[in-house]
Amino acid sequence: MLGGMPHDQVTAEVRSLINGYDPEGLLGMGAPEDEYESEVGDLAALVHAGQEITAAAVSSVWNRWFNVSPNWTTRHPSQVGEVAAALDRLRAGR
């Protein structure tokens, strides 16, 4: 558990964050709600690892799954920073 937050709850928070951004626009095109599940799992693992989460770390995860250019990380770097900050707040329990 992270700051009293069960793993499933952390994953749900990360999923909500990523789906809210819909980084690749897939949900808007009718993809299922679990479209980003692989990315969510990796990002939730970063939260649980306990180290500071940076935009570079988020980009690394994203580029592992969306190894095309351009993708969200190159089109919207400010959003990547926002997601990293939100994940880091979740990690820190704030």
Features:
Endonuclease III, domain 1; 63% helix; 5 helices; 94 residues; mainly alpha
Describe this structure in words.
It is a single chain. By secondary structure, the chain is mainly alpha-helical. The chain has one domain: Endonuclease III, domain 1 (Orthogonal Bundle), CATH 1.10.340. Helix content is 63%, strand content 0%. It is built from 5 helices and no strands. Helix 1 packs antiparallel against helix 5 (77-92), helix 2 packs across helix 5 (77-92) and helix 3 packs across helix 5 (77-92). The longest helix is centred in the C-terminal third of the chain and has 16 residues, at 77-92. It starts with 6 loop residues before the first helix and ends with a helix.
CATH architectural grouping: Orthogonal Bundle
As residue ranges, the low-confidence spans are: none
User: Shape, please?
Assistant: globular
Measured between the Cα atoms of the first and last residue, the distance is 15 Å
The largest pleated sheet is described as: none
- Into which percentage range does the β-strand content fall? under 5%
Number of H- or I-type helical stretches: 5
The number of distinct β-strands equals: 0
Structural class computed from helices and strand pairing: mainly alpha
Give the helix proportion (percent range): 55-70%
Q: Quote the average pLDDT.
A: 92
Q: Which series of helices and strands comes N to C?
A: HHHHH
Top CATH class: Mainly Alpha
Integer count of domains: 1
The CATH topology label is Endonuclease III, domain 1
Report Rg. Answer: 13 Å
